[in-house]
Amino acid sequence: MKCPSVATLVEHPAILELLDDHLRPSRLLATCQATRIHPGETAQLLHCDDDLAGVARPRPPWSVSVMWALSPYRPENGSTLIVPGSHRWETKRQPTEGEAISLDLQPGSALVWLGGIYHGAGANRSDETRTGVSIIYFQPWLRQVENMVLAVGPDEAANFSTTIQRLLGYGVVDGTFFGHVDGRDPIKLIPTRDSDEAPGPTASTSGAITD
């Protein structure tokens, strides 16, 4: 989230509408990073983005992950592997290589999945790199992967929309006062803005989460 141009992906209306179906309104941006798989890279271990030790599966969604393709994604160049339906599995069940599917994505496409779904980058057996932007959103009570309010301080946060500011962590959990600073909504720490401005509206979407 240190790159302002990525904000349009983080707050894309179609993505925000999908998040409404699975996460609380005060959800947080857990991590936002560019990914690049070079030729010869081996497959990533299949994993879940919101697995925590000692917490049994299955469980309600704790996170939603989005992979934006900046280059073509194909099985031969390391496209993201997904194990459909694995968010419903019991804790002891582990995925096998044969259960994972690899999808073709064109630049500008977004692959969206629930945090409990096993996934991972595939092996790149081609002579080209594949590049994307990985974004993960968490429930507001789950600690972010990156401490966003330190990575993007109040002065920097003033350059973003209210939606982005609250996703970074400048807000309280909806319906509660959790996350306050000295009894105030932390969004009031951001300078030169109308602190009472509500998050922007969402628009219609054309996509789906594996469910």
How does this structure look, described?
- By secondary structure, this protein is α+β, with helices and mostly antiparallel strands.
- Helices cover 13% and strands 18% of the residues.
- The protein is built from 5 helices and 7 strands; from the N terminus they run H-H-E-E-E-E-E-E-E-H-H-H.
- The protein has a 4-stranded antiparallel beta sheet, with helices on one face. Strands 4-3-6 form a 3-stranded antiparallel beta sheet, with no helix packed on it.
Short description:
The protein has 211 residues and is of the alpha+beta class. It has helices at 7-10, 13-20, 148-151, 154-157, 162-168; strands at residues 28-37, 63-69, 80-82, 101-102, 110-114, 119-121, 130-138.
Question: Which key terms come to mind for this protein?
Answer:
211 residues; disordered C terminus; 4-stranded antiparallel beta sheet; 18% strand; 7 strands; 3-stranded antiparallel beta sheet; alpha+beta; globular; 13% helix; single chain
Number of distinct helices: 5
Helix share, percent:
10-25%
N to C succession of SSEs: HHEEEEEEEHHH
Q: Helices and strands: which structural class?
A: alpha+beta
Q: Please give the oligomerization state of what you see.
A: single chain
Shape by Cα distribution: globular
